[in-house]
């Protein structure tokens, strides 16, 4: 398949610019991967789609206030988006400026602290903080890194709402957005129902928003994201399978995490970078159902969802969502999908 096979028309007014007042107030489009049937529901109805013994797997990464504003020594403005913290005083980052800074140059943050450009790593700049550790700088001067399709500056509400209620491990520069729909009350309802929960960590990078630039998908090189799947999660998945329950991934990042850890044929603990590119033709080893938001046209995330529930069925679901006025992308509505027949 080619990139154009994942195009669809999206009216700009359907791109959600702000979160709803309540996390669970979003709509939920249900797609049966076996039949292709669709149902319009509300996210608060999710417990009715689950059953005792199912295992929900969440990504517990926490979004860093990773956007910094600065100026170059020449006086020109620059915007820094931290991609990954490499050490307390070292990071890799995207830097936007009228002219790319050179190794050895310094960037003066709006708060007065300085960072030095020490080199390049492909499209990323390597930075060293000379005044404070990066976590301290981000806490003091960082802004929430809202996606490029949200056409406004970050606001205080984003500190809470562009973060899942179960986030606990700092490292992401984009939210695992399927998890934004869960609140503590819904999680409590699921526990009473007998639905089990577990966590992995995949630190979502800014590469998740990068477009696929090649028509031939065989030529696409997936961006790397740091992942940890521990032995406890592997045991929980095995126990769920043995008891006849389903493994339900909350978000495409949880799908990629589980499937990366099972790339050798069986689910095993994993710690390191994942570059797994899931597209139609991929054979899923772990995940039975998933919760996800609506994704950008021609994106690797849409390709993953199409591999999971069927290319034609997913594009038909997206056309239905557009017709019914669903809200798209990070602060938008959600889908619940079951896996198509192999």
UniProtKB/TrEMBL annotation:
User: One GO CC term of this entry?
Assistant: cytoplasm
Read off the InterPro entries from this record: QueA, QueA_dom1, QueA_dom2, QueA_sf
Keyword Transmembrane helix applies:
yes
Would I find Transmembrane among this entry's keywords? yes
Task: Write out the GO MF terms.
Answer: S-adenosylmethionine:tRNA ribosyltransferase-isomerase activity
**SUPFAM superfamilies, per database record:** QueA-like
Give me any GO biological process, just one.
tRNA queuosine(34) biosynthetic process
Task: State its role.
Answer: Transfers and isomerizes the ribose moiety from AdoMet to the 7-aminomethyl group of 7-deazaguanine (preQ1-tRNA) to give epoxyqueuosine (oQ-tRNA).
Which HAMAP family does the record cross-reference, listed alphabetically?
Answer: QueA (MF_00113)
Tell me which family the UniProt entry assigns to this protein: Belongs to the QueA family.
Q: How does it assemble?
A: Monomer.
- Name it: S-adenosylmethionine:tRNA ribosyltransferase-isomerase
């Amino acid at each position: 398949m080619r990139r154009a096979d994942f195009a669809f028309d999206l009216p700009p007014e359907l791109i959600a610019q702000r979160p709803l007042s309540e996390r669970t107030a979003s709509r939920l489009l249900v797609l049966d991967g076996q039949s292709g049937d669709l149902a319009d529901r509300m996210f608060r109805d999710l417990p009715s789609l689950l059953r005792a013994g199912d295992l929900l797997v969440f990504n517990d990464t926490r979004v860093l206030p990773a956007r910094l504003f600065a100026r170059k020594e020449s006086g020109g403005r620059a915007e820094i988006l931290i991609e990954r913290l490499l050490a307390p005083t070292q990071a890799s980052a995207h830097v936007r400026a009228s002219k790319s800074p050179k190794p050895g140059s310094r960037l003066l943050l709006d708060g007065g602290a300085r960072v030095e450009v020490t080199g390049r790593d492909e499209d990323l700049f390597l930075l060293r903080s000379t005044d404070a550790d990066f976590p301290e700088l981000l806490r003091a001067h960082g802004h929430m890194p809202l996606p490029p399709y949200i056409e406004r500056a970050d606001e205080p509400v984003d500190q809470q709402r562009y973060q899942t209620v179960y986030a606990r491990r700092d490292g992401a520069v984009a939210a695992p957005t399927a998890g934004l729909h869960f609140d503590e009350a819904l999680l409590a309802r699921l526990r009473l129902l007998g639905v089990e929960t577990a966590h992995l960590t995949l630190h979502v990078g800014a590469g998740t928003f990068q477009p696929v630039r090649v028509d031939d998908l065989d030529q696409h090189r997936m961006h790397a994201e740091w992942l940890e799947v521990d032995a406890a999660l592997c045991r929980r998945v095995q126990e769920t399978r043995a008891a006849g329950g389903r493994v339900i991934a909350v978000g495409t990042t949880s799908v990629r995490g589980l499937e990366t850890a099972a790339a050798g044929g069986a689910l095993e603990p994993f710690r390191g970078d994942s570059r797994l590119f899931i597209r139609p033709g991929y054979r899923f080893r772990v995940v039975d159902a998933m919760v996800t938001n609506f994704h950008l046209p021609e994106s690797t995330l849409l390709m993953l969802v199409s591999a999971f529930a069927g290319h034609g069925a997913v594009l038909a679901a997206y056309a239905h969502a557009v017709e019914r006025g669903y809200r798209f992308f990070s602060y938008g509505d959600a889908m619940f999908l079951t896996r198509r027949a192999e």
